[in-house]
What does this fold into?
Amino acid sequence: MVQGTVDIQELSGRSENVEAVIAAHKHGLIRTFVKRNKVGALGFAIFIAILLLAFIGPFFMPGKNPTVVANIYAKPSWDHPLGGDYMGKDVWYQIVHGGRTLLIVSGLAAFISTFIGVVLGAISAMFGGKVDAALLMISDIVMTVPTIVLLAVLAAYVRLDNPLLLALVLSVTAWPALLRAVRSQVLTLKEREYVEAARMLDLGTWHILFREVIPNMMSYIVINFVFAMTGAIYGQVILFFLGLVPLAGENWGLMINQAYTKGAIFFKDSLLYILAPIFMISLLQLSLVMISNAMEDVFNPRLREE
Amino acid sequence: MAAIASEPVMTVEQTEASGPSLLRRIGSSFLLRRILRAVLTVYFVMTLIFFLVRLMPGDPVQVYINQQMTQYGYDYDTARNMAQSLFSIDASKPIYVQYFDYMKNLLQGNLGMSISSPGTSVVDIIASRIWWTIFSVGTALLISFTLGILLGMFMAYKRNTWIDSTLSALASITHSVPNYLIAILIITIFGVWLEWIPFVEMRGSVSSGVKTGFTWEFISDALYHAFLPIFVYVLTTVGGWMLTMKSSTVAALEEDFVTAARARGIPEWRVALFYVGRNAILPLFTSLVISIGFVMGGSLLMEPIFQYKGIGQMLFQSIQKRDYPVLQGIFLVITISVVVANLLADLLYSRVDPRIRAKG
It folds into this structure.
C-alpha cells in the first residue's frame, strides 16, 4: 500500500486553513477536526470504540478461553454471542482479547517510521548537500522495494517473537514517503521570518528544528502517523495470515490465519467466526482512513476538491 | 488521491550532485541517473538477501545443515556440501569471497536449486508460474484501470450529486479493506454460505485435461479459473483509480483551454474526450506503469486463497516450507519488475511532460 505522500501546502495565504490552524492551537487538534468534519468524527468515534474494546474489554472478560468440543462451530448463544471456532473456543472472547497486541504493535511501528521519517527528513533539509543527496537516494531505493514481499521475506528469516521487533520490521519500509514530505516542508519553513529571527538569535540548528520548525508541521505529522498505522496493520495482518509470526496469544490476524489454515472457510456454520475478525480489521482500517482523510480536509484545504 | 497526486513532486526532486566530475556528469543526465538508481536498487536487494541468508541469527544454511544431520544422520561434511550446492554458497570461504561468488551466480542467472522440490532449479519454477500471474493480474489491472478512468470521469462530471458521493464512499471503502480479506469474504459468503459460486470447481489455474494452446477451450477455461482473482483485484483497486481520476478530471475541467474549447462551440463529447480526458489521464498513466511493476507483488495473498497457481502462491508455499532459494529468487524477480516499471514510468513521464526533464 502506498502511503500518502502529501506535500503539505503553504500554510499561510489561505484564510480557511489559517483559521483551522489557529483553532487547532486554541482547542487542540482533535476537537477542531471533530467539529469541522462529520465523517472524521464518525471515524474517530469508531476508533475510540475499538480502543475501548481492545484495552478495557479484557478486564470484563478475565480468565482463559477453554476448548469445549461441543462448541465446535457452535451457533451464537447467550454465552457465546459469536459462536465457537474450529476447536470449540469462544469467538467473542478472541475478539475482545485479540485487538490489543495488534493495536500496540501497529502504533509502535507507526511511531518508529514517523520518527525516522521526521528526523531524516529534517536532517536532509537542514544540512543539504551530500547528506541530502545520499538520504534521497536511500529513500528512493527503499521506496521501490515491494513492501509486502520484503516483509514476507524478512519475516521468514527473522524470528519475530517480540512486539518491538515486529514493529521494527513493519516500519522498515514505511518512512521514505514521510522523509520526502518533511524535507520539502522544512525547506519552505526554513525561509520563514520567525526561523530567520531564531537563526539571528543564534539558537542553534537543533533548537530551530525542534522548537520552531517541527511544531509547525505537527498536524501533518499526525496525519502521517495515522497513515503509517493503517500500513502497519495491513502488513501485520499479512504476516499473521502467512503464519510468519509465532502463533501465540489472541490476535485478530491469527484468527484469520487459523480460520484459513484449519479449513474453517469451507464450513457453513463458521460464517460468524470468519466474519468477526475480518469485520474488526476492516472497521479499524476504515476508521483510520476516515480520520486521516478528514484531517487532510481540515488542515490541508488545497486537497479539498472544488 | 493525495498519494498519486504528489507523484510528480517526487520525480522532480533534485539531487544536487557535488563531487568528482564523473558523478556530476551522471547526476546531470536524467536518463543516466534513473538507470543508476534502478541498478543500485537491484544491487541493494541482492545484497540484502545475501546478508539475510548468511548473517542472521538462525542462519538458514546452518539450520539446513543441522536438520540434515539430525534427521537423516548425514555427517557434517556431507550435510555441508549439500547445503552449499543448494544455496550455491561455499561456507568454508571467507565471507567476502562468498559474497562475490553469490553475485557472480546471480549475474549469470543462476538462482540455485529448490529445497522442497529437489532437482528443480529456481529459474524453472519461476518460469513455470510467472505467466499465470502476469495473465491474471495483468488482465485485472487493465480492467480496473479502464473502469476506474470511466467511472472517475463520470463522477467528476456529476460532482456534488448523490451519485458522486455514493460512488466516492464505495470507492474509499473497497479501497481501504485489504484485498485478501475481501477474497476470503467472497469465498465464505458467496461460495460456501449462499452457494452462488462453484468455488471448488473454479480453483486452480486451468482444468485438468485442457491442453495449453491458442484454442478457445483453453482461453475460456483459463479465464474461468482466473475470474475470482481478477474480480477481487478489480474490486479492491478500482476505487483508487476512480478517486484519482475524479480529482484529476475536476482539475482539468477548470483549465482555461476547456472553457475556450466550449466557447468555440466544440461539442461536449469532444471536449470531454480530447480536452479534459487527455489531460486528466496524464498523471494516471505513470501510476499505471508503476502498477504494472507491482503486478506480481499484488498476487501474493490472493493466489493462495484462490489456489491460483501463479507466482504468489509459489511464494506463499516457499514461505511455509522455508524454501529459501525459491523465496529469494521470487523476491528478486518481483523487485526487478518493480524497478524496471518505475524506470519506464520515469522515462515515459519525462517524455510526455518535458517540464520534469528540465527540472530534475
About this structure: Residues 1-19 of chain B have pLDDT under 50 and may be disordered. Residues 125 and 311 of chain B are 9 Å apart (CA to CA).
